[in-house]
Write a structure and sequence with these properties.
Length: 365
């Protein structure tokens, strides 16, 4: 990679992090605003309305090229192109229809009576499945080894059922038809790997490694973020009953996995998540209006992750180099570097990034 000539070193650091054997400094993703572009910027075509915000590849690739030319990829960051139709695109492949806007996308429920009348089956001709594959094929051909195209944010488990059904109604379904819900979860598990494996086969590198869109992770073999954001509406008993069985099977079929724990209301499920043997790590999202991942109030959660000998991924908001360095130093002092991943500094100036890189070289001592 022209913009990341030491990518092999970064890959080895990822390998060590997944193994819990990372030394010198934690994994650090920082993206740096260049004072000047490294090359002349591309002219970006005018985007068409509707779904073309996400799938007009002339616009997408021109914007991404300009983004690479305006950034430096310091420490463990590297260029990767995300092509999501929103988080949870499996719901689209199974019948939901999206509502697109320039800023976001909403998935509209498609199961209106009962799950008993809506078995989950693979449809090779589904419009959104075919379109999502198409744009990834275009991007992978354009990449030419100069950037990674990530596996999209497919999402799994009850989150997909809730998107197809409506979250409130899904709460009733857990009570009214639990056996049918469990059957649909088993079907969904099998379908997830139909979709995941197709993207993996398309996007893996020559060594079989892959990158996953959510949380900017690379790993040798099949790599993915896994989740259940619906858990904020579930009791710990229901979470263990409905989510953990298929989540356990999913992690066993992947090589590198990290669970996305979203917000303070989800913390009560951390013990169950950390018991999953095939899970490598936990990613913490602090939630809107709360202090970021460097705040000490989250240390009890991090202690659980550390005691379970899982990897930990935390996000620090953009507060400048000095604050960033201070927060990372505190995390390193408490948890060491072996399993720690810090994402933040979006987007530091070149001078601020130099300070962070110097601190990293010194092990944040």
């Amino acid at each position: 990679m022209k913009v990341k000539p030491n990518m092999n070193e970064v890959k080895q650091r990822y390998v060590n992090w997944w193994k819990g054997d990372l030394h010198e400094s934690p994994m650090l993703n920082i993206y740096v605003r260049r004072d000047n572009p490294r090359e002349t910027l591309e002219d970006v075509p005018q985007a068409k309305p509707g779904d073309h915000y996400f799938s007009d590849m002339d616009v997408v690739l021109a914007n991404f090229t300009n983004s690479m030319r305006m950034q430096n990829y310091e420490l463990d960051s590297f260029p990767m192109l995300d092509l999501n139709f929103g988080p949870g695109s499996v719901a689209l492949y199974l019948g939901s229809e999206p509502t697109f806007s320039p800023e976001t996308v909403w998935f509209n429920p498609c199961v209106h009576d009962t799950w008993e009348n809506f078995p989950l089956v693979y449809d090779k001709d589904n419009r959104w499945w075919k379109e999502h594959l198409r744009i990834h094929e275009v991007a992978q051909k354009a990449a030419q080894g100069e950037f990674y195209v990530t596996i999209p944010d497919l999402v799994e488990n009850i989150d997909i059922l809730a998107a197809m059904r409506d979250p409130q109604q899904m709460c009733f379904d857990l009570i009214d038809e639990p056996d049918i819900v469990k059957q649909r979860l088993e079907e969904l598990h099998d379908l997830y790997f139909v979709y995941y494996d197709a993207f993996y086969d398309l996007l893996k590198d020559k060594d079989g490694a892959s990158t996953f869109t959510a949380f900017k992770i690379w790993g040798p073999g099949k790599t993915a973020k896994v989740q259940c954001d619906f858990n904020v509406l579930m009791s710990p008993d229901h979470f263990r009953e409905f989510v953990c069985p298929t989540l356990t099977r999913q992690c066993a079929q992947l090589d590198n996995t990290i669970f996305h724990l979203d917000g303070p209301d989800a913390i009560r499920h951390a013990p169950a998540v950390l018991e999953i043997p095939g899970l490598n790590g936990l990613q913490w999202t602090h939630g809107a209006g709360n202090p970021d991942g460097g705040d000490e109030r989250w240390y009890p959660l991090y202690d659980l992750v550390h005691e379970a000998e899982k990897c930990l991924w935390v996000y620090l908001e953009d507060t400048g180099a000095d604050t960033f360095i201070h927060k990372v130093r505190k995390l390193v002092q408490r948890y060491g570097t072996k399993r720690l991943f810090v994402h933040g500094g979006n987007y530091l100036s070149e001078s601020e990034a130099a300070l962070v890189c110097k601190a990293a070289a010194n092990g944040f001592k």
